[in-house]
Amino acid sequence: MTALDTPAVTASPLSATRLAELTALIRTTTGESRTTYSPLDGAPVADVPVSSVADVDAAFAAAREAQKAWSRTSFRERRKALLRLHDLVLEHQDELLDLIQIESGKSRQHAYDEVAHLALTARFYARRLRKQLRPRRRNGALPTLTSITVNQVPKGVVGIISPWNYPLTMAVSDGLPAIAAGNAVVHKPDSQSPLIALAGVELLRAAGIPAGVWQVVSGAGSVVGTAIIDRADYVCFTGSTATGKLIAQQAAARLISCSLELGGKNPMIVLPGADIDKAAEGAVQSCFSSAGQLCVSIERLYVPQDRYEEFSAAFVSRVQHLALGASLDWDADIGSLVSQAQLDTVTAHVADATAHGATVLVGGKARPDIGPYFYEPTVLEGVTEAAECFAGETFGPLVSLYPYSTVDEAVALANGGEYGLNASLWGKPREARAIAPLIKAGTVNINEGFSATFGSIDAPMGGMRQSGLGRRQGAEGILRYTEPQAVGVQRLVPMAGPAFLKPQTYARLLTTGLRILRRTPRA
Ligand code: NAD
Predict the structure, then answer these.
(1) Are residues 258 and 272 in the same domain?
(2) Rounded to whole angstroms, how far apart are CA atoms 456 and 460?
(3) Is the shortest distance between the CB of 451 and ligand 1 below 6 Å?
(4) Domain tally for the chain?
(5) I need a surface site. Which of 28, 62, 121, 194 has the fewest CB within 10 A?
(6) 163 alpha carbon to ligand 1 midpoint, in Å?
(7) What is the pTM of this model?
(8) pLDDT score at 403
C-alpha cells in the first residue's frame, strides 16, 4: 500500500484570530478550555472553550426567545436563507475541507462528500419546505359541515448531539430541516470536532439565520449532552448504539421524542450475475470512505462461491494500490483514523479475527510512519462467528469476505446480527430490486455502496433494529421536527346535532347519512 510522501500539514492554516472568531461562537462562561489535537499528526489544533450546565440553560433561554420570531418568518424567507447557505458552503469549501481534514483525519476527497451533502440538503429543504409544511386540508367528519386543516407546528427548541466522523454534515445538515420548520437549535458538537461545526454555524448566520436560532455549547456528552436532553423539545442524536439507548431512556423519561442514527454492520451482496470488476471497484469506495468510519460503510461482503476467487483477486489488488496520506490536498485515497481508541479497536478486531482462524488478504497493519492513527485498509477471509468483527461494528477500514452458495443464503447471512442500517446489492437492478425488501436495512443501494441513497436527500435515511429510530432526509427528516396539529371548523350544525332535534331522531338521521357515505366511493 502506498504511503504518500507529502508531509502532514496540520500546522493549522487558521490564524489565531480566525480560531478566536470561531470559538467565540460557543456559549460559555466557565473560562475553561480543552485542547483539541489533529489525528493527522497529533499536533494541537485549538483551545476550545467548555460550557457549563448554566451555559446550556442560557443557550435554551436565548433559543426559546429567538424561536418565537423565527417561527413567524415566511417560508420564502427561510427558503432564501437556505439557498444562500448552499452558495456560501460551496464558496467557502476550501476552509471547510481543511477543517474537516484537520479535525477528523479523513482524506480530502472524503471530506468533500460532507460539503456536497450539506449543499444538497440546503437546496432540497429550501425547494421543498413549503410543500412539506404548508397546512393541508383533510376530510371532515360531516362533509361540508366540518372542515379540517392540519398544521405542522414546530416543536420549539431541538437539541442536536453530533459525532466526529461526519462533523460538518451530521451537525448542520441534520439541523437544517429543524430550522426550516421554524424551530431553534441548541447543538453540541463532538469534543474532537468543534471547529468545523462552528464554521458551519458561522455560515448559517451569514446566510441570514438569526444568531439566537442556532446556539452552540461544548463539553462532555455526559454533562452538556445530558443537560440538552433535559431541556429540549426534541433530540436529534447521531452516534453509537450504546449512547443512543441512554438518550432514548432520558427522552422517554421526559416524554419527548427523538431520532437516533446509530451504528451498523452493513453487508454487501455480490449477486451471481454481477460484473465482478465493477463490484470490486464499488466495494473499495463502499468499505473505505472516511477510513471506514462511516455509519453506512460496508464491513461484510458476500460473494457467490463460484466467483469468490475472481472477486477476491480483483478487490484485493485494488485495495493494494490505495494511497494513504496525511496532507491537506487531494492526493490521498485514504486518511487517518480519528483517535487512539479507534486505532485500538481496529487493531484488536484484526488480532482477534486472526486468532480465531481468519486470514489477512491485504493490509492488517498500523502505519505510524504516516501519522499516529493510520491503519491500512484491510481485507479478511475465513472470519468465524467467534470473532468480534463477525457481527460487531468495527467502524474502521476492515472488511470480511464470505462465500455463499445460494441467494437465499446470502440474504439470510446479510440479515444476521442485530443491526439494520444500510446494505448494498451488486448485480442486475431488476433482480436486486426484488431482493431489497427482504433485507433488514433502512437503506439498500443497488450497484452503489451507500451514496445512491445517502446522496438522494429526498430519500429517508436511518436504521432498523439496533441501528436507530426515525429517519433523516426526505419529508420524514423535516416532519420529525414538527407536531401535526388538527384544526377543525364546524359549520351550521353542531356535531351533537341541532338543539331542536331529539337525540334519537338525530341518531337515526346520522345513521342514514353514514350509510349514504358508505356507498359514496370517495367519501
Ligand atoms: P458516541 O455515541 O460516543 O458520541 C456521539 C456524540 O454523543 C458525541 O457528541 C458525544 O459527546 C455525545 N455523547 C456521548 N455520551 C453521551 C451521553 N451520555 N449523553 C449525551 N450525549 C453523549 O459515538 P462515537 O463513538 O463518537 O461515534 C461513532 C458511532 O456513531 C459509531 O457507532 C457509528 O456507527 C455511529 N454513527 C452513526 C451514524 C448514522 O447516521 N447512523 C453516523 C455517524 C456515526
Answers:
(1) no
(2) 9
(3) no
(4) 3
(5) 62
(6) 5
(7) 0.96
(8) 98
Q: For residue 333, report the distance from its CA to the centre of ligand 1, in Å.
A: 25
pLDDT of residue 3: 73
pLDDT in tens, 353-383: 999 999 999 999 999 999 999 999 999 999 9
Indicate if ligand 1 lies below 6 Å from the C-beta of 337: no
For residues 35 and 168, membership in a common domain is answered with yes
**401 C-alpha to center of ligand 1: Å?**
27
In a domain, 208, yes or no: yes
Helix (H) / strand (E) containing 404:
strand 398-404
Whose CA is closest to 309, among 405, 409, 403?
Answer: 403
**103, 261, 376, 381: the active-site residue:** 261
245: CA distance to ligand 1 center in Å? 11
Residues 429 and 512 in one domain: no
Residues 6+ positions from 323 with CB-CB distance below 8 Å: 1, 2, 3, 4, 331, 332, 333, 334
On whether both 240 and 348 belong to a single domain, the answer is no
In whole angstroms, give the CA distance from residue 167 to residue 196: 7
Q: Are residues 227 and 303 in the same domain?
A: no
* Residue closest to 28 by CA, chosen among 219, 194, 252: 219
| pLDDT confidence bin for 276, thresholds 50/70/90 | very high
**Joined grid coordinates for residue 188:** 453540541
295 labelled catalytic:
yes
The answer, yes or no, to whether any atom of ligand 1 lies below 6 A from the CB of 343, is no
Site to substitute for ligand 1 among 187, 240, 250, most atoms within 8 A of C-beta: 240
**CATH value at residue 353:** 3.40.309.10
